[in-house]
Structure formats: C-alpha cells, structure tokens
Amino acid sequence: MIVVLLAPLSSAISQTAAEWRDSLVTLNKLIERYPRSVDLRLRKAAVNIELNQWEYAIEEYGHVLKIDPENLSAYYFRAYANVHRRQYALAKSDYETVVRQVPRHLEARLGLARVNELLGRKSDARDEYNQLVEMFPDSAVCYAARAAFEAEQQQYAVALYDWEQAISRQPQNVDYIVTKVDLLLKLNRKADAAEELKKALQRGVTRGLIREWIDKCRQ
20 to 30 A from 128, CA-CA: which of 49, 101, 140, 215? Predict the structure, then answer.
C-alpha cells in the first residue's frame, strides 16, 4: 500500500550520515551546558531520527516532556519514532494526545489511523480515515491513505473511487496513478488501466515515468 511518510524535519537540509553525527556531537556538548533547553533537545532528537536512532530520539523526547509536558512536537515525533520501533500502542497514545489538543492535526490523524490499522483495529482505522476525508476534503493524501486501506481490505470499488479522487487533486502524482493502475491490473481490467495511463499522458505526465506500466498493459 502507499505509505504516507511523515518527515521528521520539515525543512531539513540534506546531509550525509557523517555530517549528522558531527551535528550530534555539537548538540550533545550544548545540551551539557544547557540541559533544560527544549530547542536543543528537540534538535538533537531530530538528528537521532535522521540517523535512525529511534531509542535515543524517544529518550530525548521524554526529556523534553519532563521540561515541557505540553510540547506537542515531542508527542508527535515520539509517536513517529515508536512506529519505527513497532511499538504501535505507545505511538497510538501519543498521536491521541496530539489530536485531543489539535483536532485538525492532519499528520497526527494520519498516523493514528495507520497505527490503528497496524494494531488490527480495522473499524477504528476506517472511522479515522473517513473523518480525515470529511475534515480535509481537498487533501489528496487523505483520499490516497483511505484508498490504500480499502484496497488492503479488498474493498476494490471504493478504493478505485478514492484513488480517482486523489488523482483529481494531484493529477501528476505518479505514485497515485501507478497504484491505481496496478489495482486495475490485479482486477484484470487491462483496458481500464491503459485508459488511466492515456489520461495521465494527456495531463502531461512524462511517458518515461510510467513506461513500465504502459508495457504491462500491452502484454
């Protein structure tokens, strides 16, 4: 399924792992001098995430929350880190904390829907995806997330509808297009898949980006 990726740093500059580790050394030294600096600890935790150091990030967010128990960034990104540790119940609790405080927090609601799914709470996940679409009717991401969930539940008709809604909002999103095409091919609807690709080309999608799927439709 399409996995909605929630980047830990909204404006992070691309760095090598060595450069991130150098940043970590600097931040650790600063934290020794200013142990109650929430900003420094959040920055350090963000670097831990960049380095896939999930345990260290979670520990750092815990320090932040001891200093500032209402810090929603710490709750949100601790949930993000716990998802990577497959600690879904812990992630669920933190996402719920964020949503209680900011009901229209799109990323937290997407995260909550996904962890409910991973916990086997399919009904709760479905309710959350439905609510997301109602709250954010212009969001292609919300439709795509719900479509992916529906496809996993083998609810293909509604999944195809939601992929169409996602594509109508982001007409050149190749991931959405090929995921819908892939589903059509799985349903042995090759002509419909080919038509979908034809419409994508007409919208200006580069042929090279979908060539593999065009070839599949010709087989």
Answer: 49
Helix (H, G, I), strand (E, B) or coil at 115: helix
CB 173 within 8 A of CB 142: no
Distance CA 58, CA 78 (A): 5
Does residue 46 contact residue 5 with C-beta atoms inside 8 Å? no
Q: pTM for the complete prediction?
A: 0.86
Amino acid at 34: Y
Helix ranges, the chain (H): 17-33, 38-50, 54-67, 72-84, 88-101, 106-118, 122-135, 140-152, 156-169, 174-186, 190-202, 207-218
Q: What is the 3-state secondary structure (H, E, C) of 58-103?
A: HHHHHHHHHHCCCCHHHHHHHHHHHHHCCCHHHHHHHHHHHHHHCC
